[in-house]
Description:
five-stranded parallel β-sheet, Rossmann fold, four-stranded antiparallel β-sheet, alpha/beta, Arc Repressor Mutant, subunit A
Amino acid sequence: MNKAEILVIDDEAQIRKLLEITLQSNGFAVNTAISAKEGLIQASSHPPELILLDLGLPDQSGHDVLKKLRQWYTNPVIIISVQKNEEDIIRALDNGANDFISKPFRTGELLARIRSALRNVNTDEHETVLMYSNLEIDLSNRTVKKNNQLLRFTSTEYNLLALLVKNEGKVLTHHYLLRAIWGPGYIDQSQYLRVFIAQIRKKIEDDPNRPGFLLTESGVGYRFVGGQ
Length: 228
């Protein structure tokens, strides 16, 4: 049993029922809300381990709900919405969403995204050496090894990789990464990001053209995946 509690904020009855059945059958405890107001009240009175949030709520935009949640709520928020254009996805991720899944969705993929988000939260904050298959990342000593061989990283390459690893499973947008690594004056310099991502992939991936760790979310950003 996972035992984690999930709050579903969605005004569509069929979706709520589907999610309730799917999540409960996989060991999660589920609470539901049909509006922004109800969802915010439930989240504040009994904070869940994760929130599934629809953008098209009847009383206010899910984007506004997300902003209000992020004033105090630190656990994962996954957006589930029929709105699937890049602008909506990027806006949600920049406002603090951990992930974005478009309706209709495959339940297997949704469950995998939920497990990834919860695993990232439950990672021991004091754990400094992270192991992923043949890859070892030592956050304390700022070193990276592959097959027990020390890899040479520039400071910028390491900082970029570490930021993605610390947010394992979460999509980090181009603007977020550029702002965090190079500063606010570089948020439109996407070529910087492409070059450094390519350099990191050459070092950590078995096949840089078919990456297994550092995945591209087309038009949005990048995600580090350590494995299911």
